[in-house]
Amino acid sequence: MRRSAKAVIGPALMLAAALRGAPAGAAPDGTGDWAGTYAYAADGGRTAGGSAVVVVHTLRLAPASGRPCQLTSSGFQTDTTILCEVTGSAREITVAFRSYGYGRPVNAYGVAVYRPGQPLFRLRRTGRRFETEMLGLGADGARSGALFAKTS
Q: Which sign, positive or negative, has the C-alpha torsion 104, 56, 84, 139?
């Protein structure tokens, strides 16, 4: 028996929305529509020798609150991966430290720069832009403003 296109497309669209974290009605935790990749290039100026001091922070968010996210920072004298957690709502989220990429709360030098659960920064929707408020993340450059942008 042949099914109509409408009968197949409706459930398929709901499945696609669920898999990408977009609400089919509304996400249970309100943060599903934040899923994706965000980036911020922190411009720290130039060294005495004239080299650019730039660190790119890339945030990858899973489609549900409380699930781990990943923050990588690379660039001038920086190469760090942080596992983090995201909480919040459809309008605003807070990204908090969980551990470094290898699962320990201390960095490669044995230093506890952040404590588990410590808020690193907050992202807030303002129309088509995102306002960032740096809380604990030791990022050089601006401490607030339209810093992170969604890349995918």
A: positive
Per the CB < 8 A criterion, the answer to whether 103 and 83 are in contact is yes
pLDDT tens figures, 62-111: 876 566 799 999 999 899 999 999 988 989 999 999 999 999 999 999 99
- Say which residue the tokens 């965000």 belong to: 38
CB atoms within 10 A of CB 1: 2
Report whether 39 contacts 59 (CB < 8 A). Answer: yes
Tokens of 71: 């923050």
pLDDT tier for residue 137 given thresholds of 50, 70 and 90: confident
CA distance 146 to 40: 9
Residue 69 is encoded by which pair of tokens?
């996210």
Interior angle at CA 84, CA 39 and CA 14, nearest 5: 75
Residue of 25, 69, 22, 76 whose CA lies nearest to 52 = 76
Residue 67 CA, distance from chain mean position = 11
Q: Do residues 97 and 80 touch, judged by C-beta distance below 8 A?
A: no
Tokens representing residue 105 in the block: 């709360």
